[in-house]
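To: structure desk
From: M.T.
Subject: fold request, one chain
Message: Could you run this one when you get a chance? Sequence is below, nothing fancy, just the single chain.
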Amino acid sequence: MTWPVQRWLVSPTYPERVKLAQELGLSPLTVQILFDRGLQTAAEIQRFFDPHQEPLPPPFPDFTDLPVAVDILAEAAKRQQNIAICGDYDADGMTSTSLLLRLLRGVGAQADYAIPSRMREGYGINERIVQEFYEQGIDIIITVDNGIAAHAPIALARELGMTVIVTDHHEPSPELPPAHAILNPRLIPADSPYSSLAGVGVAYLLGLGVAERLGYGEDLTEPLLELCTLGTIADIAPLTGVNRRWVQQGLRLLTRSRLLGVRTLIQVAGLGTAEELNPDHVGFQIGPRINAVGRIGDPQVVIELFTTEDETLALQRAEECEATNLRRRQLCSQIEQEAISICEQQPPDFSQEPVLVLVQPGWHHGVIGIVASRLVERYGVPVFLGTYENEAQTVIRGSARGIPEFHVYEALHASGEFLERYGGHRAAGGFTLSAAHFSQWRERLQSFGRQCLQPHHLRPLVELHAQAQLGELTLTLYDELQRLQPYGMANPAPQFWSQRVRVVEQQVMGKEKNHAKLTVTDGTGEKKVLAWNWAPHVPLPEWVDMAYTLRPNEFQGQTTLELQLLGVRYPIPQLEIKPAPAHAHTPRCVPLENLEQLLCQNTDKKLLLYGYQRPELPHHPHLDYDRPRGTYGALILWSLPPAPIYLRWLVAVAQPNILYVHNVHAHIPPLPTVAQVHCWVWETLRQPSLHPWNLLALGQQHWVSPQVWIAGLRELGYSHPDWPETQSVEGELAELKAWYHTPLTELPKLWNAL
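Reply: Done. Structure tokens follow.
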């Protein structure tokens, strides 16, 4: 086995999808994916496909401060008061700032902005910015994508006589800042369609309210929706509820964008014209160019790009975005390779330290979050990366990314006594600490990780939404799935898997011979598969389970459907533990001192001798070994079997009247290592068979319990919802050791419990 060992998280199959698919005229695979996303009725699916079919409820009942904020800004525009926006340096914050600038200037207000320095100040409005606003004669401050935790700066603004409106979407603390109005979807009911808004979505709501109050229409608000769409996608906000509705509408506007800056950025990025724009372009091409500026450049570049009507300035700013993004990619690649090199020189033992923590001088803080995400994909573990903030290397600042079973913010909170600052949510976070506390903080992180992570969690994760036969994969299905667009958070691009496909052709391809192309079949159809960067793993075995996405391929005017490889594994086994027949009685349990004496006294009885290192006694006329062949007068245990289920099975099949127990603690099988268990599992997986694995037989072969085999499968990336829960292999071996040392006096009690 040479390919990456992954953890496949396979969604359950919903049998009721077939009937609903017929009712809706859809493929069962499409309905399976929709079911997996919580859409399980025809009405819910129709609303998902067309979120505009029902009117959007007004936001005022949920955002109780929205009328107050609208009143403040509408009155300020009329009175020509000075308004300042405090934004953020990520794509969400920069698009939010641009959106409100366009809105306020569009209604004739006096508006300016400021953004804190990522490197010198960090996230959010601060007292320096408040003081500068005061000195500039600012009357009203609006925070966008920040402010919900800025108690001291907002209190200072109030003391200086300024009005403050907070628009944010981050988690609020129990005590809210003393602003005049606060708009935050985290403070509204969770079932509201507005509950998953990004910061730019909150700014858009406020902008719509001000435009309507002052009598402005679509000429002003449509460009705002374009910015809302860019920011929502770039911030990886959930594309459900009102976000999906607005992004669908905004993408249509972007294809004929009225924003000079957007059109110019598309052209400079080499994406053709705005008319050719699709959701992937926004998420993977436009979004990174915007984000790059906030990470390693000056956010003013993006804000000027999205607010200017000067073609020369727009071109200059778009070219700066392009150059900054190129530098960002180079930095990310350099840091990623350095981190990988560190791991290769000193391979981490994730079984003991399940969190990857690396701190290096010279790494750019603005991009280490991106690199952390890439390392999570590579190693499948939580990753915390840091760099030094000063030449003296006394302060560390970093970013963290997690996996589903590891809550980043809770991990930071659990180690908070060693941190100067931290924040984040389940999947990501940021932190600052003194280098003097690094060792203690790192150990606290590892301790937190050991509490919530099992070895089978520590694999690169592939989430699979539907199992398909190759014959079901058609261009018609692909076109049908496009109705799920736009893809993003909470609505990812569908990922499929097929069980037990045959690899009939495989060849290396590409200029540097680092890619591969496969032909696979499963009896229902045949497909070509592109496997980027998989050349080192070729040749694959003849039979595999395969994970993939769908991609159309156009060649000489013909379009065909191909697969893009996500991963392979040996075919997942069916597991079988044959149930023991019901038994009518409980045998009497008797200690055995002398085996030969017992045999001499029972020459007329059928006896079954079972156990590890049990002797061979060929002269007894009615003695069988290990496996029952009928019923017996007595069962002799030379050692305990590998698990209580074996004891139940032996007694139920053999039906002995007496259970003789020899000195079983003198004949305990040697426990395997975790590595040995993994090796056994791999060797068995490499022998593909149409028959289920008989776990009782496999366990007896190696004197381990069925749970050890199942845990071994899980740790090697296999799992199934029907399999029983297990501990780690290490934990199951500890249970097995305890079982082999069970006091003989406990066996009758144990038998009664069985």
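Reply (cont.): The first helix runs from residue 17 to 24. Let me know if you need anything else for the meeting.
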